Amino acid sequence: MFVRIAVATCLLLGLIAGPAAADTGFTVEQRVPLAGGNTNDCTGEFFTITGYFHTKVHMSMTLDGRMTTTTEFNLEAVKGVAVSGARYVETAETSTMWNRDLDMVPQTSNYKSDVLMNRLGEDGSYVLGDDSYTMVLAHYTVNANGTTTVDRMDVTITCR
After folding, report:
1. Quick one: which H or E segment has residue 12?
2. pTM, whole model, 2 decimals?
3. Which of 32, 49, 58, 64 has the fewest CB atoms within 10 Å distance of its CB?
4. Residue-averaged pLDDT of the chain
5. Residue 59 resides in a domain
6. Is 153 part of any domain?
């Protein structure tokens, strides 16, 4: 008897909670050729790059009006060459998540980005390192009254 009541309760809770959590979202994804330039913060060296820029954006809304947007951006197969002849491989990954109600409060957002410029063929010229690594972390929270209660950003640039 206890098992039947437990199973019935779980099924009932599933029916009640299920529709509110239903994902009514969509995803857009694309891969685009990339060409341009960048500067290594550790060496001051400018280099041209080619590769691909990949994006993926997912947006959803629950039946109770809660919206979520997640994004992913990354570089794929990005290689570069400096005027000096130095070769580079660059990787980057960025992700965000933004949650909010229909009236935009409350809401929270998180952002994380990692970029690595790897200079190939170290020759010891740059004692502190010639590979540039940049990390950015950001977060904010807005409460139901529309007041920002948390707002911070941390940026770290290191040479390896």
Report:
1. helix 2-20
2. 0.78
3. 32
4. 86
5. yes
6. yes
